[in-house]
């Protein structure tokens, strides 16, 4: 499976977590693809930190409006009824608990469900963006990430070696291999992707995890 297919597989699974009426913030990278996979019959409202509520799917080629972008400066569309506001108001919305779900990408996530997603030691730091605010303000945090790095190293690790984006635990981790929930006792494997085995998930996951109901060793 190529990278595009993998990324869309992850985004499609994340989209299954959405419910009608949800206000949803999508982080940079794989999370932005979630807008293209909203299940039929589900009406959600995508919000972006630069001040747009009602973000639509990725525009078709030739339909790009250079003035209509998300927080990552990638082109987006707008839904009927979309509204615009200042970045300050957007962050007030996030910090005030008015975002139901935030979908974030990560560099690493540890055994407690804490994420590192903005800085690699020794490399230029562009800034944390809205990650810290979303971790504090969003009601539910879903991680959308490939299971391993480009070098094949696990992203789900015992302890993050990169700076943490915050101390809050996320609620759900979705990769191309598995879905984990984050409980008080740590990570719990809830789903294994079709064509994947438990042994493969164990081999590619550094952090310890428990098996959820329906997962057999």
From TrEMBL:
Position of the signal peptide:
none
Nucleotide-binding: present as a keyword of the record? no
GO molecular function terms listed in the Swiss-Prot or TrEMBL record:
CoA-transferase activity
Gene3D superfamilies in alphabetical order: Glutaconate Coenzyme A-transferase
* Top-level taxon in the UniProt lineage: Bacteria
Q: Does the keyword Transferase apply?
A: yes
Xref: InterPro entries: 3-oxoacid_CoA-transf_B, CoA_trans_fam_I, NagB/RpiA_transferase-like
Pfam families found in the cross-reference section = CoA_trans (PF01144)
Q: Which UniProt keywords apply?
A: Transferase
Family annotation (PANTHER family): KETOACID-COENZYME A TRANSFERASE, SUCCINYL-COA:3-KETOACID COENZYME A TRANSFERASE SUBUNIT B-RELATED
Family (UniProt): Belongs to the 3-oxoacid CoA-transferase subunit B family.
Q: What is this protein called?
A: 3-oxoacid CoA-transferase subunit B
Naturally occurring in which organism (per UniProt)? Brevibacillus nitrificans
């Amino acid at each position: 499976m190529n990278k595009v297919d993998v990324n869309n597989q992850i985004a499609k699974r994340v989209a299954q977590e959405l419910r009608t009426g949800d206000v949803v913030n999508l982080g940079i990278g794989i999370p932005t693809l979630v807008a293209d996979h909203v299940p039929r019959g589900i009406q959600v409202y995508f919000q972006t930190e630069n001040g747009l509520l009602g973000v639509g799917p990725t525009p078709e080629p030739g339909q790009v409006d250079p003035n209509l972008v998300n927080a990552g400066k990638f082109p987006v569309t707008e839904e009927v009824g979309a509204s615009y506001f200042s970045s300050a108001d957007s962050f007030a919305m996030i910090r005030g608990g008015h975002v139901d779900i935030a979908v974030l990408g990560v560099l690493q996530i540890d055994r407690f469900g804490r994420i590192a997603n903005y800085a690699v030691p020794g490399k230029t730091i562009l800034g944390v963006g809205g990650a810290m605010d979303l971790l504090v303000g969003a009601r539910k945090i879903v991680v959308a990430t490939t299971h391993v790095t480009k070098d094949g190293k696990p992203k789900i690790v015992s302890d993050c070696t990169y700076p943490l984006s915050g101390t809050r635990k996320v609620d759900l981790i979705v990769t191309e291999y598995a879905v984990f929930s984050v409980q008080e006792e740590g990570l719990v494997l809830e789903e294994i992707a079709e064509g994947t085995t438990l042994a493969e998930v164990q081999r590619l996951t550094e952090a310890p995890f428990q098996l959820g109901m329906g997962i057999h060793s």
